[in-house]
Amino acid sequence: MMAYFDSGKTASTTKPLLGDYETLDEIDSVSSLHKNDDAFVSVESFEENGESGFERSEGLIVKEGLLRRLLMAVVRRRRRRNGLFGRKESGEFGERERLTSLNGRRRGWVTTGFLKEAKFYGHSVRSILAVGLFILTFLSILLTIYLSPYPPTYLPPPSSSSSNTSLPPTDLSTLTNNVTPIPCHSHNDYWRPSPLYSALRTGCMGVEADVWLFSNELYVGHTERSLRREKTFKNMYVDPLVHLLDLQNANTSTPTNKNGIFTTDPTHPLILLIDFKPSPPFLLTIVFSTVSKALAPLREKNYLTYHNGTALIPGPITAVATGSAPFDLILSNETHRDIFYDAPLSSLPSQSHPGFSAENSYYASTSFRRSIGTLWFFRFSSYQRAKVRQQVKDAHERGLKARYWSTPSWPRGLRDKVWRVLREEGVDMLNGDDLEGLKRVLEEERVRV
């Protein structure tokens, strides 16, 4: 007893496809594995028509492998479902079957040679696989760019060049002329070719400096390996800010109501965000004390915003501590608090004690990636927008400014869309590396309003 392919031809060349079987039960056991594939002969059909109704198709033999046999079985099943029949012809790729409809119209080729030449209704299997591989590669590249943790090319790595205090006073005196302050925060500001000054020229109301304590000196850098002897907190931020404010207040004799950095709007303060890099707990007190001493030149000239225990006295510079900054030491100064805290935005509702308020904090910040999550298909879900809206509300109820860091930086279209949505939901300060991109988005917002 034998099992055959049903090709609807004469029995002159009938040969077994899968081998000899002694009983109908053995044939049934094989055909049951392919009961949904009419390319295999059923026991009932074999008994009804006998061997004369079935024939082995040339080229579809065991020696070409199980994968090949199964592929052609599917092709034959599809051919029958569409009312087609086969006619063998010879060509440059060997023997192949041309699928022809009952009215004689050509419907494509199915080769019986190697798998790489097989086609489904005119579409090469090799071409289909190549297109699929290209699509997967393209999506992988997009995903890699989207998840890339490296800073964009417009933000160069730290250099060993001297500090930016070498700019001539004539340039500094006109630095912010015709510059409109905008709610942007210069993330990792010290990485820029001209730290502090690049942000001020753009109009950014916030700059960030990461500080490390070594030998009673505060050095600025993202990691310990990027620190340089000349890149100190004093040289890069405190002294330049004192000099700029002295120029802005050259004609002001009153000890209070100092003019701010921006000539076009001197009432706007500049937010100096000081990121305390990780240190052992017993050193945080020393780091905090050193930061407070470093701010002394600004404090002595009444350039710092402070809380006197009953009221908030605004100044041209508002110093905010973030990172590993100790909140308890900020609270401990109840009579002249001029260093404020960066509260955790994502956990404000659960923080009942101690309470974060405008008396001890300025920002309420959190990581966008950890708090809001990934934007699948480059869009906010309704849940994500509602979460942003609620977090902003929690911050504003405490008199704090909402800010997100670690927002998407690439693709640029997604980055700009995230900034726009955050502003629509009431976020007070946009965090970013591309200052020109931030400025463009914020100017578009001002034009729309």
From TrEMBL:
What would you give as a GO molecular function for this chain, any one? phosphoric diester hydrolase activity
Alphabetic keyword roster: Membrane, Transmembrane, Transmembrane helix
A single GO BP annotation from the record? Answer: lipid metabolic process
User: Can you tell me where the transmembrane regions are?
Assistant: 128-147
Please report which protein family the annotation says this sequence is part of.
Belongs to the AIM6 family.
Protein name as annotated? Altered inheritance of mitochondria protein 6
Q: What species is this protein from?
A: Periconia macrospinosa
